[in-house]
Design a protein that fits this description.
The chain has about 100 residues and is mostly helical. It contains two helices and no strands. The protein has one domain.
Length: about 100
């Protein structure tokens, strides 16, 4: 029940540092995946619209594919934006700002 030795404390610090680095690496990979998805959705929508226009010669398919592609892009981009925002620290008293009174 005594105090942890210097080597144990150092090992704990190293483990925390490694865990933090791993979490940061995973967050960067997730951000890169979201960016690739945000590029792939409009490209896919334009490909479907092109197929609808030139192969099927149907303007309704073009309009519908552009609409669906835009809505998917909007959803993915807003989800990526919301996922990248850090939550505020509610435990600190200074985190609540009521403005000038």
């Amino acid at each position: 029940m005594g105090k942890a030795s210097k080597a144990e404390r150092r090992a704990e610090r190293e483990a925390k540092r490694a865990a933090k680095a791993e979490a940061e690496r995973l967050a960067q990979e997730a951000a890169a995946r979201r960016k690739r998805l945000m590029v792939a959705i409009p490209v896919l929508g334009l490909v479907v619209a092109g197929v609808g226009r030139f192969a099927l010669d149907d303007d309704r398919v073009v309009g519908f594919s552009i609409l669906v592609g835009f809505l998917l892009f909007l959803g993915v981009s807003l989800a990526g934006l919301g996922g990248s925002v850090q939550p505020r620290d509610g435990s600190r008293a200074g985190s609540i700002d009521f403005g000038n009174r």
